[in-house]
Amino acid sequence: MSLGGHPNNVVSVRYSSSLVFTVSTSYIKVWDIRDSAKCIRTLTSSGLVNTGDTCAASTNRTVTIPAGENQINQIFLNPSGTVLYAAAGNSVRVWDLRRFVCTGKLMGHLGPVMCLTVDQTGNGQDLVITGSKDHYIKLFDVTEGAVGSISPTHNFEPPHYDGIESLVVQGDCLFSGSRDNGIKKWDLTRKDLQQQVPNAHRDWVCALGVVPASPMLLSGCRGGVLKLWHTDTLSPLGELRGHESPINSISTNSSHLFTPYIWEAKCTESGTNQHDVTELEPR
């Protein structure tokens, strides 16, 4: 199965049940993959909805953004799969996937929103965390049915020294990676800074990931280096050169790490019934 016909590079992919969402330039394609790869909707950064596939494929590598639109940098689904958040320009657009309509925008950043992640409270309220080129991380509480412009409920201080490129949540902790080459660890309950590694990499920290059931944080940089950190202390556990190009995304399951390569994790069981990653091998 191939999901093609994009106007330029695909920069973000998400899936929920039978739907897959792909991002290229200012467009989000919505694919129904139950029978075949069929594009059923095309969403735009400005909030328009078109039935079917309405953005043409192109072999031109120059990124062209139509007038009135913005580059969509990342998308994220809420845990229930009913809402899609799309970062474009200085805001995040909120899409109700039950009706395929835009219901509002998360506002407040002074620069383009480069990354976001979404968690959910016990009462079903979405907690949207955004990172921007303005160096700041913001938290938005989004209640079900909220419409219009939504302001942040918290700004994380102190900010990074450069733009935020990556965010990941593990339990009550948030980790952020920045163009300042650093990684910060935040307490989501107290909403304060716990720890930081100012020069975690020699280049932008473009991707972060966590290993399920293990106190391991993974980071990837623009220089292609992959590093492992202990989530409790942010002490380094190892590194390797994974690629000759930037590592822009990291995904994990219980035994594998996915960058553009697939890595197999060699684990040992610790005394706390957790599994510690001791080695990564490409497959």
UniProtKB/TrEMBL annotation:
Location relative to the cell: Nucleus
PROSITE patterns, sorted: WD_REPEATS_2
SUPFAM superfamilies reported in the protein's UniProt record: WD40 repeat-like
Gene Ontology cellular component annotations, sorted alphabetically: nucleolus
Main location: nucleus
Pfam families tied to this protein: WD40
Name of the protein: Kinesin-like protein KIF21A
